[in-house]
Amino acid sequence: MARQQRIRHDSAIAVVGLGRFGAALAIELADHGAEVLGVDADEAIVQSLHGTLAHVVQGDSTDPALVEQLGLGDYARVVVAIGSDVTASILTTSQLLRAGVAEVWAKAISPQHAVILDQLGVHHVVSPEADMGRRVAHMVRGSSDDYLEVDSRYGAMLVTVPEQLAGVPLRELALQRQHGVTVVATRHGEDLQNANLETRLRAGGAMLVAGPTREVEAFAALAATMRARGA
Ligand code: ATP
């Protein structure tokens, strides 16, 4: 049974559907200071997140009474993270839009699902499986553990610095001219720091390399080869 909870903070975010994707998203938001309301039909899931999220409620989000009772229309941001039950995703989303939520984010599990959500007027449609698949493809091509897509043809990759590039100022390495990429930050230990032309890379540290996807992948693969040769 859903319990009455009204939250009127603009900073509050509701996450509806606390499966693997929704729970990870809700926990990350909470860890970064957001007041998160999590909603799920499954009592065990709700119990497991008590104390982790500010508010957790068990209930069926397709029920208009629940949306009203929780005051979800007052939220500036709501994420619908229901995937495999497309009907529940669509019903929940359309109710939230009707209730006047300023920004609705919704997860799609297929291109068709994404089209329907878009046609409903969802402000942000995300396709985590498709996005992750694309991202991992770039990571595999660049032999890198991380790729950030800016758009389909531009991105950034975290690349381990090969010994051969260490100790020389970036100005002299001329990576932009030679490889079409820019080192925007370097990482030693935990912290990333902005790089400039005087920055010297450290062997074994990491560099965040940005540029057109093909160039970034090619450069990251070259760095991996250099590391293998240098090892
Ligand atoms: P994931 O990959 O994130 O685990 P999924 O794509 O398999 O998720 P679903 O199984 O459809 O997605 O749902 C994710 C969560 O949403 C589940 O925990 C489920 O209990 C919850 N959920 C599904 N329908 C509803 C609903 N009508 N109301 C509230 N929660 C719901």
Give keywords.
alpha/beta, Rossmann fold, Alpha-Beta Plaits, six-stranded parallel sheet, binds adenosine-5'-triphosphate
Give the radius of gyration: 22 Å
Q: What letter string, H or E per element, gives the SSE order?
A: EHEHEHEHEHEHEEHHEEEH
Strand order of the largest sheet: 3-2-1-4-5-6
Strand content bin? 15-25%
CATH class of the largest domain, anyone? Alpha Beta
User: What is the helix fraction of residues, given as a range?
Assistant: 25-40%
**How many distinct folded domains?**
2
Largest sheet: 6 strands, parallel
Q: Shape, please?
A: elongated
**Class computed from helices, strands and strand pairing:** alpha/beta
Oligomer state of the chains in this structure: single chain
CATH-assigned homologous superfamily of the largest domain: NAD(P)-binding Rossmann-like Domain
Q: Regions with pLDDT < 50 over 5+ consecutive residues?
A: 1-5
pLDDT averaged over residues: 91
CATH topology of the largest domain: Rossmann fold
The ligands found in this model are: adenosine-5'-triphosphate
**Measured distance between first and last alpha carbons:** 60 Å
Number of H- or I-type helical stretches: 9
